[in-house]
Structures are given as C-alpha cells and as structure tokens.
Amino acid sequence: MAQAGVPLPALEYPPVPINKKYVYLLCAIAALGGILFGFDLVIISGTVAFFQAHFGLSELETGLAVGCINLGAAVGAVMGGWLCDRLGRKKLLMICAVLFAMTGGGTGWAMSFNMFIAFRMLSGVAVGAAALVCPIYLAEISPASMRGTTVSFYQLSIVVGILLAYLSNYLLLNVEDNWRWMFSSQSIPALLFYFSLFTASESPRWLVRSGREFEAQIVLERIGGLDYSLAEQEQIEQSFADKSDTGVSELFKKEVRHIVFIGVMIAVFSQIVGQNSIFSYAPELFKKAGMAQDSAFMQSIIIGITNFVSTFVAIFTIDKVGRKKLLQYGSFLLFADAIALAAAFYMQLSGIWVLVFVLAFIGFYSATLGPVTWVTLSEIFPNRIRGNAMAVATLALWIANFFTTSLFPVMNQYFGVPVTFLIHAGVCLGYFLFIRNKVPETRGRSLEEIEKLLEKS
C-alpha cells in the first residue's frame, strides 16, 4: 500500500496492437487514386509532338494544352474541399474514379482542339479532387506511428503512375494514332480503382464529424482494437467540441490563419522548384541535349524508375528523420542540382551529363519534397477545417503547377533552358530558407496533438 504523500509509480501500458494489414489494405486502395494522378499528369509528355502536329498548334497553344489540366485541378481542389466534407472521403474518391475513366478516352479521341482542352480540364478536376482527398483519407485512417509512411505511399503511387505513363508512351510510340491510345490507356486502372473502393471503409474522423460515432468506433476498433478505438474517438470528439463554425471564414481566424499560410506556401513551393519542367517535357529536354527520339523516350522511362526507387528513401526515413529535415535537405540539394543543369545546357555538355543531372534532380525531389509535401499538408490542418484548408492549399498548388508547366515552352523560347533552371535554383534556395524559419516538425504526433501544438504557436 502506497504511503500518503508518496506518488504512485507511472503505469506502463503495452503498445497498441495495430492491425497493420488492414491499414495497408486501405492505403493500397486509396493509393490507386495516386497512380491515376501521376499517370494523368505525365502521360501527356509523350504525346506533345504528335498532337501538336495533328492540331497545328503554336508554342503558346502547346503550353496551354499541357498546362490546362492544372486549371481543371484547381477547380477540382475547390469543389473537393466542399464535397469531401459533405459526401465523405470514400464517395468523393469514387466520383474521381469515374471521371478518370471517362476523360481518358475522351481526351484521346477528341476530334478538335477545343474538345481536347475540355476533356483535359475535366480530367484535371479528377486529379485536383483526388490530390486533395487521398492524403486526407490516408492521414485520417492511419495511427500516428504509421502516418508518415502510409501517406508517403500516396506519393509512391503517384510515382508508379508516372512510371506507367512513361512505359505506356514508349510501348505505344509506333502504334497508329499513338497519342490517342496513350491517353485512352488510363481508363483501365480507373475502373479498377472504382470497383476496389467498394471494399474500403470511410474515414473515422469524417464519421465523427457527421455524427456517426458508432460507425467510427467500428472502423477504429478494426484498426487498433477496442482500447485504441475509445482513446482515439475521445480525442477526435474533443477536437470538434464547441467549434461549430467549419466554413471558409474559419480559415481566417487568428489561431489558424498562420497554419493555412504555411500550408499554402508548402504547396506552392512544391510545384515551382523545377520538377514539372522535367516531368512534362522530358523527351523534349533530352532531344535538346542531342538524343534521338526513341532514345529520349527510353530516358523518360529511366526517369520514372529513378522516381520510383528514390521515393522509398522517404518511406523508410520520414517517421525517423522527420518532415522538416527532409524538406530542408531536399530543397538545398535541388538548388545545387538546378545550377548544375543550367551549366550543362549553357556549356552544351553531352547528353549523358544532362541525363545524370536530370536523374539526380528527380531522385532528390522524389526522396524528399515529393512525398513529404503531401504528408505535411495532410497533418498540419485542424480536424474541423481540414477539408477547406486542404482545398485552399491544393488550389494554390494547381495554380502554381499550371503556370510553371504552361510557361516552360515560352521561357525556353525567350530565355533558354539555362536561365529557366537558374530561376528554379533561386526558388529552391528561397524554399530552403522558408522551411528553416517557418515549417514545424510534426513527426510522431497524433493529428489532434498537432492541432493543439500549432494553434498555440
């Protein structure tokens, strides 16, 4: 029996027995949305020369054709924030799957340039909504100890989609109407995504928000058992208590507006460091370095493989090293590599040097900024505003993506590739300084703990 005034020793509880197989199953299903995201964005890289000739496009029109998907994605981000809070994460993912299936064939078999643009923008709506809801869903179903890894799997799925797009372009290169079949090929994984979603659970945090606590408890119990379910549900309910205002106006309140600003800046910087210039115009860059067309397409596949392999660096380190350090390392390495690329094109070095620096750039991005951006954005926003805040951040992301993708042909024409990559280098250095001074570390904390931490900062 403890003596009066003597504190009892702290009790130690065994670790929560997380059902990792179930969590990874849900992640795999949601990750199919990431595959379609990456596939849809990059499939156009192998089609540019062909549809440009087919429709007789100028450089400005070509930039619009490549970049217009980002305008659609911006619309998808705005609509997605509202829809994922009202319909739920799962239903919105199903809508995205249907759009992906429809617009692949629609873009590929467009009879006019205006029809091409319309379908490409509608496809962007699916990309923008999926880019918003997939990481939200993954973050909300994942235990804190697994969240960095599971949300990083979303970036891995994007990378897989990019690799599949490059491979599809290469295999269909010599087929009649090749560019039409390249676009149409995305309908197959889209249908797989749609039917697999019937087996997925809804986000427990959205269920609590919607007053469906019993259903949330069932999902949480399946993830980590009864004790985990009760503890998590109590934290989630507290995060919504006495905070009925969940509209857009909530984003401007003093305690959260600085969080929204950080999220927007992370989203914008992630798109303007230079990776879009490489992913969307890889074959064209390699041809400028003196490579033949077939060789340039093969180099694009090597980019996809590098992208895929490098993403595993983030998956295995993000829950150990932390989000902030990976963002800092990545932005500085990209700064150095962008300068190297500018020098390589300026001095007209052989194609092998361009390939080396391009692969290094993709490797650095895929190991750091690529996956960590989505992890950080999915974590930093409070539960009650996550949908709307993520919508604002991803809207900014797609607008930045549109301008960087659309302006690359124009900047290349007027300034040349070396100056374009010097500009990217300056952006990378600016991002490094922003991360060091403004971005917090969120590793190892529950979403509700992160909310309390950031609202006090």
UniProtKB/TrEMBL annotation:
PROSITE patterns recorded: MFS, SUGAR_TRANSPORT_1, SUGAR_TRANSPORT_2
Cell compartments where the protein resides: Cell membrane
E.C. number: 1.3.1.74
Chain ranges passing through the membrane: 22-51, 63-83, 92-111, 117-139, 151-173, 179-200, 259-278, 298-319, 326-346, 352-377, 389-408, 414-435
Principal subcellular localization: membrane
Enzyme class: oxidoreductase
UniProt keyword annotations, A-Z: Cell membrane, Membrane, Oxidoreductase, Sugar transport, Transmembrane, Transmembrane helix, Transport
GO cellular component, one term: plasma membrane
Membrane topology: Multi-pass membrane protein
Gene Ontology MF annotations: 2-alkenal reductase [NAD(P)H] activity; transmembrane transporter activity
InterPro entries noted in UniProt: MFS_dom, MFS_sugar_transport-like, MFS_Sugar_Transporter, MFS_trans_sf, Sugar/inositol_transpt, Sugar_transporter_CS
A family per Pfam: Sugar_tr
Residue ranges occupied by any Major facilitator superfamily (MFS) profile domain in the UniProt entry: 26-443
Family: Belongs to the major facilitator superfamily. Sugar transporter (TC 2.A.1.1) family.
Xref: NCBIfam families: SP (TIGR00879)
Protein name: Sugar transporter
Protein species of origin: Dyadobacter fermentans (strain ATCC 700827 / DSM 18053 / CIP 107007 / KCTC 52180 / NS114)
